[in-house]
Amino acid sequence: MKCVIIDDEPLAVELLEDFVGKVDSLELIRTFNNAIDAVSFINQTNIDLIFLDIQMPHFSGIEFLNTVEKKPLIIFTTAYSDYAVEGFNLGAVDYLVKPIPFHRFLKSVVRAQQTFNPANVQAISESTTAPEIDQDFMFVRAEYENVKMNFSDILFIEGLKDYVKIYTTDNKFTLTLISLIKLENLLSCKGFSRIHRSYIINIKHVKSIQKNKVLISDKRIPISESYKNAFFERINL
Q1: 3-state helix/strand/coil string of the chain
Q2: Where would one find coiled-coil regions in this protein (predicted)?
């Protein structure tokens, strides 16, 4: 399926680009950071699927969908669950609430494929490239060497613009040049959860949850509203 991403958040676009690249049956044609610029392109190009943010400045995803003449399959992506009913009323294939885990993204793609070409649904799962589920470590670049880090030893990760601090059980941290969103993609299937724009935590090291904070070791880490629902759902709260 030929697809387009429309989202005003650069990190969200980066994550979706990465996800699309893992699915052989998807071909990313173009990305847009606003819906206005995408209208004429969609009307003039054969696109099968759009990953469409709803809440965008000046021109929302819903306004976009009511404007375009051609209507490809739509998967809404948004940080707000309030629009779910309206999204499905507009004929959306699915509705993804950010932060979006890969397994949930893949489920939406399979659902879109069932509508687009039911015969190829099995091929999506078989051809999808995903991280090795049995690998329990990663290597990160720190100064002039690549350091092996066991996932079980990581307490939490703090984002600092282009760098991250990886805190471990030995009361030390490693500073490495990598984006938090790439680590989120890698670690989400390893028992880690993004709970804040600046933090990823290892769920197994959580001692307690106090209102909008988690306690890991002696550190109280904030839970932001945009990640709270997904985190609580994951830990069955």
Answers
A1: CEEEEECCCHHHHHHHHHHHHCCCCCEEEEEECCHHHHHHHHHHCCCCEEEEECCCCCCCHHHHHHHCCCCCEEEEEECCHHHHHHHHHCCCCEEEECCCCHHHHHHHHHHHHHHHCHHHHHHHHHHCCCCCCCCCEEEEEECCEEEEEEHHHEEEEEEECCEEEEEECCCCEEEEECCHHHHHHHHHHHCEEEEECCEEEEHHHEEEEECCEEEECCEEEECCHHHHHHHHHHCCC
A2: none
